[in-house]
Amino acid sequence: MTRSQLIEAVASKSSNFSKKDVEVIVTTLFESIAESLAKGDKIEIRGFGSFKVKSRDGRKGRNPKSGEGIFVDPKKVPFFKAGKELKERVDTIGKE
Amino acid sequence: MTKADLVEATYEKVGSSKKDVAEVIDTVFESIKEALEEGDRVKISGFGNFSIRHKRQRRGRNPQTGEEIMIGERKVMTFKASQILKDIVNKDGEQTE
């Protein structure tokens, strides 16, 4: 499922909004999540999961092509943790 | 930030009521869940991909008691952030490329 298929799916279930409106909402939604991650905020969506930013320390690394030793700078990585409901719905083993 | 804040950030852009927008946002997350449930990957360009990974059965250990247990076969969801999102999260300056 791509972003446009998601918009399609949501628009087909929604009587109050045009596809264009759903597109604006979906776009703004993910933009808002990204912006608040950039600020270091945590986003929690009940039944779905939470997004937050984790910090990674700098470390000594190696260029795998040349074998040259380099220092990898500390960085931040976006992280998603699935919520309970999502975890349970996804793990269908033994349910069918 | 919670779903209520997401509604707040969104409803003015479409000039609609918070209640209606909240419903659409619920539908967005519900649709993503439905797709994942069917084993489909969800790719949000510029944001990231949600996908399902099949984990095999493995031997594990209760870290509290040290007791060995069997962790059964299961499916888990993973999120891989897009390069764009990774860059956004790191953009506030103090780091160099």
Q: What's the average pLDDT of chain A?
A: 92
The coarse silhouette of chain B is elongated
How do the strands line up in the largest sheet of chain B? 1-2-5
- Low-confidence runs of chain B: none
Shape of chain A: extended
Share of residues in strands of chain B: 25-35%
Distance between the termini of chain B: 29 Å
In total, the number of domains of chain A comes to: 2
Count the beta strands of chain B. Answer: 5
What fold name goes in the CATH topology slot of the largest domain in chain A?
HU Protein, Chain A
Q: How do the SSEs of chain B run, as a string of H and E? A: HHEEEEEH
Share of helix among residues of chain B? 40-55%
By DSSP, the count of extended strands of chain A is: 5
What Rg of chain A do the Cα atoms give?
A: 19 Å
Give me the side-by-side strand order of the main sheet of chain A: 1-2-5
CATH-defined architecture of the largest domain in chain A: Irregular
SS content category of chain B: alpha+beta
User: What CATH first level of the largest domain in chain A would be assigned?
Assistant: Few Secondary Structures
What fraction of residues of chain A sit in β-strands? 25-35%
